[in-house]
Design a protein that fits this description.
Elements lengths: L6 H12 L5 H8 L3 H13 L18 E9 L4 H9 L4 E6 L6 E7 L2 H12 L5 E8 L36 H7 L1
Antiparallel strand pairs: 1-3, 1-4, 2-3
Length: 181
């Protein structure tokens, strides 16, 4: 089910994407709306599964400097079973079912190329039901899923906002003030 996300929701989401610890009071001051409005909107965005408020580990910062995308071909009828087994592995950051000549797409974080090789060759490669793997080391990630906003979710003037989170004079789009009323 699609949920409508209005200008106020978008403005709140973008501020939380910039700083997930930003308080409702700070957001409210920046947007010129009541703090209780921001709190209620955040609660609704979470309950409607529009956003998740989580801490995200940066793998390279905690010693997992090697990232790879691996595409797997799986025996017929075993895709969900194998995907669930792989998803339980701590070194796997993402598991998706795909279409085309590969059945499962995963992202792995490893401490070294050797560790990556061992996991792909010895663990995935020897897993019952895995027919073939295709691995791509990712030396640099430009945009992650945490950066996703969506083409209709941009608030054009967010970069025009003062960097001071406590600014009382932040310029607001007229539509946000109208939505909050």
């Amino acid at each position: 089910m699609t949920r409508v996300v209005d200008d106020l929701d978008r403005a709140i989401i973008q501020r939380l994407q910039r700083d997930g610890r930003m308080s409702s009071a700070q957001i409210a001051r920046q947007l010129g709306v009541a703090e209780r409005t921001v709190r209620a909107r955040i609660e609704k965005l979470v309950s409607d599964n529009v956003i998740r408020l989580v801490a995200s580990v940066v793998p390279s910062t905690v010693g997992f400097a090697v990232t790879a995308d691996v595409f797997l071909e799986i025996e017929a009828g075993r895709v969900h079973e194998i995907a669930n087994q792989i998803a339980a592995r701590p070194e796997v950051g993402y598991v998706g079912l795909s279409t085309g000549d590969r059945d499962i797409s995963i992202q792995i974080h490893a401490q070294s190329v050797e560790q990556l090789y061992d996991f792909v060759s010895n663990e995935l490669g020897n897993m019952s039901g895995v027919v073939r793997t295709n691995t791509f080391i990712i030396p640099k990630i430009i945009k992650s899923h945490f950066d996703f906003v969506g083409p209709d979710m941009l608030v054009e003037d967010i970069d025009d906002q003062p960097d001071d989170a406590d600014s009382e004079t932040a310029v607001q789009p007229d539509s946000i003030a109208e939505i909050a009323e």
